[in-house]
Amino acid sequence: MLFRIVLCRRRNFLSKYFCYFIVILLLFFVFANQMTGQKQIGLVKQNQENEFIKLFESKKLTYLEFIEKQDHLLANRSIINSATADIVYEALIARDNLNIIPGLGEGGIPANLEDDLVSISEEVMKKEAMNLILSDKISLTRTLRDPRNPLTFVFRCKTVTYDRYLPSASVIIIFTNEALSPLLRTVHSVLNRSPPQFLHELILVDDFSDRAVLKGKLEYYVKTRFPSKVRLMRLSERSGLIRTRLAGARAATGDVLVFLDSHCEVFDSWLEPLLQRIKESRTSVLTPLIDVIDHKTLEYKLNFVDFQIGGFSWSGHFTWIPVPPEEEARRDSPIAPARSPTMAGGLLALERNFFWEIGSYDDGMDVWGGENLEMSFRVWQCGGTLETIPCSRVGHIFRSFHPYTFPGGKDTHGINTVRVAEVWMDEYKQHFYTHRPDLLGVDYGDISRRVEFRKKKKCKSFKWFLQNVYPQMFIPNENVQAFGKVSGKTSCIFF
Asked: What are the TM regions of this chain, as residue ranges (predicted)?
């Protein structure tokens, strides 16, 4: 305004309208100058993004090259601004869809790659512990053939009717650096094969992944492809399986907690049998019947005849065992719940309030390992039951090794199992240490809160567990003449 007054006083021959025009013209040139500079910067970023998009849409680019370029793009987040991020993610997802071969792996049948990709897929398997190249080529919503034919006992599952009103379920899936396609296929299968009125929410908990593809692209996929009942949580530091599951459980609001691994496919009518049993018995901790998904061919291997339950070895490892004759006799039907001494731990369901009442997880354990036996012993010794539900089926990719790292390179399974032995196994812990002498004297942390919990709950002894829950378990120093190692004098072979 001051500029206009001075200018008009000096040049009285100009009308006031001409003064306004001059001022507006000057302001326009200043503004246009600034906008030109910003536009040039924006055009550089836009051109970079457009180049990536054109590259991804090019059919000349092999899928492995696409993956490499995608990781480069997503890692370099500075070239993706909020205005164009959605365009980039849509292009990436569209390129993923182009890679899918219609019909491949449908029905859960074994699938194979083209010859030129076999050697590459084998290299990738050394890192991922599964055939990720093949997984990326199979539909995220593939079908599974129904195993419940009239020639098998499982056919009776089709005749079961469930209550109209059942508890609601919070499905919790945790992951750390999981490959994207098996993770998304897990979520799609839960959404597609769960009655929506019973599926209250699905919570994805990211245990501090550093894979670029699990950042913005996953967030965009969840936001645009899944209903609002699917939530993505991220932890600010690497916490491990136990603490990550606890974070998911604290966030859950459904009546029942259902924990799944991030590389599963659930079967039709998988959820209702779990919810029905928990409605009938709130102190029952349940596991579905676990089918195997082959890590090389992604074949869904159906168990037509029978199933196994969980045991354990004195070295502190989970084992599969046949259903004992005594348990078969107790059950009034081949599809009735089967009591199981232990569980594998990756897939389970239990009433949410009972989860906290029974002691949730031991948060003094690190990363992974031993938590399944700890919960198994604790549930049985403290008044609950552990059961396998034959009419609930979930496929699981069993890997030959863990594709993620363990902080500090520690034997977390061994150290965690020491905590199990010290809190729950009483005098029988000696057998564990006989098999794992390397763990004698290891620092297993503070167990005082877990010991106090056991006393407060007046939990039963481990001897009671062995006599009443797992009487088939061989006990080395009972009813034997001797036990130990035998070696030859002239050789280093041990038996």
From this structure: 12-32
